[in-house]
Amino acid sequence: MRIALQITCVNDAMFPDTGKAVVRLLRRLGVEVDFPREQTCCGQPMVNTGYLDEAVPVVRRFVDAFAGYDAIVTPSGSCAGSARHQHSIVAERSGDPALAAAVAETGPRTYELSEFLVDVLGVTDVGAYFPHRTTYHPTCHSLRMLGVGDRPTRLLEAVRGIELVDLPHATECCGFGGTFALKNADASIAMGADKARHVRDTGAEVLVAGDNSCLMHVGGMLSRQRAGVRVMHLAEVLASTEEDEG
Amino acid sequence: MSGTFVGMPAFPTAAREALGDTQLRRNLAHATHVIRDKRAKVVAEVEDWEELRLAGAGVKEAALRDLATHLETLEASLVRAGATVHWARDAEEACAIVAQVTKAHGVDEVVKVKSMATAEIGLNEALEAEGIAAWETDLAELIVQLGDDLPSHILVPAIHRNRAEIREIFLRRMGDVGRPAPVDLTDEPAVLAAAARAHLREKFLRAKVAVSGANFAVAETGTLVVVESEGNGRMCLTLPEVLISVVGIEKVVATWADLDPLLRLLPRSSTGERMNPYTSTWSGVTPGDGPQEVHVVLLDNGRTRALADDVGRQALRCIRCSACLNVCPVYERVGGHAYGSVYPGPIGAILNPLLHGVSDEQTASLPYASSLCGACFEVCPVRIDIPSVLVDQRAAVVDSHRGDRVPKAEAVAMKAAAWAFSDSRRLAWAEKASGLGGRLLRRFGRTTLPGGRAAAGRLPGPAAGWTGARDLPAPPEESFRDWWDRTDGGRDGGAR
Q1: Which domain-ending residue is among A65, A89, A120?
Q2: pLDDT given at position B493
Q3: Which residue in B63, B79, B184, B353 has a CA-CA distance of 20 to 30 Å to B414?
């Protein structure tokens, strides 16, 4: 089975530690991933802002980079959702049947990390150790576009040492929303402020989610508030071992 | 005697103002959560809810697929049942028809059943210009009308008001247009409702002409259906001599049996009730019973435009339940007025551009009034994929600007991003540049994220949109791809 890591543009440029954690975690589980160097972005920033023509070359790059892999694993619910549900829209826009055929191949083989771990590898206990009071925010696209359900929490519950606390109003959007965070910054911040308040109410030290873009938004607000809560990608928690903590 | 949405600013500006209204924030957060929870409870009782949603969507979709045929059947059935059918291409034509019928009876007032179609076409204002007073009889519509206010919700147009405000409006305004509120009026809901009942009763008993909309129109029998909670609709539909119903052409369903899933979906989705208190149906004129002159105005007003849109046409399935508003995190915080239309919230953000196009700035801002969280799609009883339509309407907005001589900064940025993302070498260069920028940021921003990572605090210029309220992690010195190259994917002992 050939497995490719789709790092995502945000993680590549801003959160390389998440990518390293995915590699470390999967290696610990006996899985070696390829990192196709030609990959860039899934095209979601363009699609979700309405720039479909601009997304065409980006999606073309995606399918070229990941052609021939049995599974494409990505530490982002949003980018997996983009590959699975939006690439076909872009392909249709391009009018290129070859691109449509290519996205029909790559889309269904794209897995968000928790899906890959639970559904493809069949594990929930990944042998992690993380002795911190932690709360989990299910990001909208992982929850409603992909339907990852309780996979992330099952993975977290199996982490040794973790004190996992429920996040009130967990399924409500954090307000990031891609370019929404800039185009409607006021509404975005109002939503983020409420999410940050719910996070603080848990008394957690760490907020975990499967999308660093959402965490960049909520984490940026928590940081500004000097709330004393740090944000971490799910992959980084699952990759943690006693050595890391020691 | 009511406000107007004409001249409203684009959504981000209107939203900013609304977000500063503390009373509004409190009223909305409370009301939307109450209805949201009620809905969730009664929906959970229905074992086959998902099948019911499919059935509801299917019925509406089938009707839309053969709309012309069903409308002609509806017209024939209505005429056979003694009704007069009018066709209105737009708001102006529809308003003119209602005014003309009303004037033909020599009256200067009508009573109204709550109706989105008549709100959409601005009927009250049009009638007022003709010297005809249109009295809203739905409690929330009455509050909006007396307060010279604008509706902010499809089902509960006065959702932005609390009971103290309603008491004040009743005391101040009821006397100007009819029976005044009692001087000892309190803000107890039952007391407020009693004042409205006494005020409205005079109007019900006096009115010769009533105006309604319809939730559904059954083609095979020429039956209109109104679903309501208060009974004011039943009064309007039965007491006056003349009844004029303004019905959007998308309200048609083929048969009575088609109502089955829709009448089960609607109350649970809208008011969070198993069944609404009043369901009125009428088929033209029944001799000696109810209105003896029945008019039906079939309204297009952009609906055929929406129908021609492959992705957007599903919005015409909407049964105006408001579940998408109640669950929307954006609506919950900014309220309905910011959308600049009688159709606010997620459905408004797609319906308005579909009905009217995206040529004006205000309408063009609506598809962006969403974080695309998908909560609306999840609750929609007729499975309108609102996030997908939002994205498609965003594309319509972008496409409408493709010929601009001076492109927007956003368009330039997207083109630049597409260029960089089309080739991984370009992206690698951009990341190296951002790594260098990160060094500057670390010096410039001088803040640290919890956990220790360097970050930028408030930055000027285009970065202010992000950093006004959120710290920004400094870009790392080394991108993931550079780390992968340097360490052979961590195999060179560089797992950190």
Answers
A1: A120
A2: 66
A3: B353
ipTM exceeding 0.95, yes/no: yes
Domain count, chain A: 2
A15 within some domain: yes
Same domain for A137 and A110, yes or no, is no
B467's CB contacts (< 8 A; 6+ apart) are A220, B456, B457, B458, B459
Q: Is B476 helix (H, G, I), strand (E, B) or coil?
A: coil
Question: Which range marks the domain in which residue A199 is found?
Answer: 133-245
Q: Is B330 on the interface with A (CB under 8 A)?
A: yes
**Phi, psi (degrees; rounded to nearest 5) at A69:** -85, 145
B427 touching A (Cβ < 8 Å)? yes
Is residue A127 included in any domain, yes or no?
no
Q: Is the pLDDT of residue B1 over 50?
A: no
Q: Do the bridges between strand B293-299 and strand A133-136 make them parallel or antiparallel, or are there none, so unpaired?
A: unpaired
Domain B11-304, CATH class in plain words = alpha beta
Strand order in the sheet with A163-165: A163-165, A133-136, A206-209, A230-233
Which chain A residues are Cβ-neighbours of B495 within 8 angstroms? 20, 23-24
Phi, psi of B452 (to 5 degrees): 110, -10
CB B373 within 8 A of CB A169: no
Strand B84-88 relative to strand A230-233, pairing: unpaired
Which structure tokens are listed for A75?
């530490």
Amino acid at B259: L
Lookup: tokens for B53 = 């949603």
Q: Largest Cα–Cα distance of chain B, in whole Å?
A: 93
> Is A128 part of any domain?
no
Q: What is the pLDDT of residues B83-136, one digit of tens each?
A: 999 999 999 999 999 999 999 999 999 999 999 999 999 999 999 999 999 999
Residue of B387, B398, B329 lying closest to A85 (CA atoms): B387
- Enumerate residues 6+ apart whose C-beta is below 8 A from B402: none
Kindly list the strands in the beta sheet with B252-253, ordered across the sheet, starting from the edge strand earlier in the chain.
B252-253, B216-218, B223-228, B278-283
Nearest to B78 by CA among B217, B215, B212, B251: B217
> φ and ψ at B282, to 5 degrees?
-150, 145
| Alpha carbons within 13 A on the beta-carbon side of A77 | 26
- Is A185–B468 a contact, with Cβ atoms under 8 angstroms apart? yes
Q: How far is B10 from chain A (nearest CA, A)?
A: 11
